[in-house]
Each structure stands twice: as structure tokens, then as C-alpha cells.
Amino acid sequence: MEYREFIAQVQARGKLASFEEAEAATLAVMRALAEVICRERAATMRTYLPVELSCLFERCRPEVDPFIDSQTFIGWASADLDAVGMPDRTLGGLDLFAVDAADEAMRRCGLVFCVLKSCIDRSQQEALARELPEEVCDWFRCA
């Protein structure tokens, strides 16, 4: 799949406002993946992805870091998310970077995961899932 097609699919699945918004979401999730997966998995994934995305996986760790959890992952994946003015439903007030931003980041992870899964075969999907933090693995499998 070509880069522009990958991003366009993320945009269409998520009904995102622009190509640029879909691109930012895709790059954020892919960067988060690159922090989590091992070098061997990254090398395999790079053969399936457009060069513009595969280059993000050039500096992965030799082994999976067992201390990375879903909150760390979502922090990386939401780094570029514009969360200004999103209300925090749990506290009843206005917390600019709270629950709704995390919900939107998880939704965007699912969008990117869905398109990513269409690029890689079933065995690679399972191998990738096993390297993800438990909750992120669930998001990936449900995408």
C-alpha cells in the first residue's frame, strides 16, 4: 500500500477532517509502536509498510520493554492530539487534556491499527499483538 492511500484510509475510517489530521494521527501511533516493539518485529513490519512509515521503525529496541504500559503508549500516541477545550466527564469540570483526549487517542489508535492490519498477514498481526502492552493488544485485536 502506498503512503497516501494508507493515510487516506485512516482519514476515511475515522471521518477525520483533513489528510493532515489523519497523517498526524498515523505518525503518532506508528511512533508509539516503534517505542514498544522489538527490532526483529520492526524489521519484518518495515517490509509491509510504505517507506514513509517504515523509516519510523529503524531505531527499535533489541527486545520488548516490559515496563511500557497502555498509559505510556497512549501518551505517545496522543502527543500531537489537539485536546484544547475537551471536557473531562469524570470530574465534571473542564480539564483540557483529560479523559476525552485519551478516548480520542484510543479511537485513533484503533483507526491506524485497522489499516495497519490490512497491510500485514495474520501471523505478523499475532506476533505484533504479543509485543504490545496488554490493553493496547486488546485495542489492536479489536481493530
Could you walk me through the main structural features you see in this protein, from its secondary elements to its overall organization?
The protein has about 140 residues and is mainly α. The protein has a single domain (about 5-140), classed as Globin-like (Orthogonal Bundle). About 65% of the residues lie in helices and about 0% in strands. It is globular, with a radius of gyration of 15 Å. The protein starts with a helix and ends with a helix. About 30% of the residues are buried. The mean pLDDT is about 85.
Which key features would you list for this structure?
143 residues, mainly alpha, Globin-like
CATH C-level category = Mainly Alpha
The number of helices is 8
Class by alpha and beta content: mainly alpha
Return the average pLDDT rounded to an integer.
87
Cα-to-Cα separation, first versus last residue: 18 Å
CATH overall fold name? Globin-like
Topology summary:
Elements: H1 3-14, H2 19-36, H3 39-46, H4 51-54, H5 70-77, H6 99-119, H7 122-131, H8 134-142
Helix pairs in contact: 1-2, 1-6, 2-5, 2-6, 7-8
Please outline what is shown here.
This protein has 8 helices and no strands.
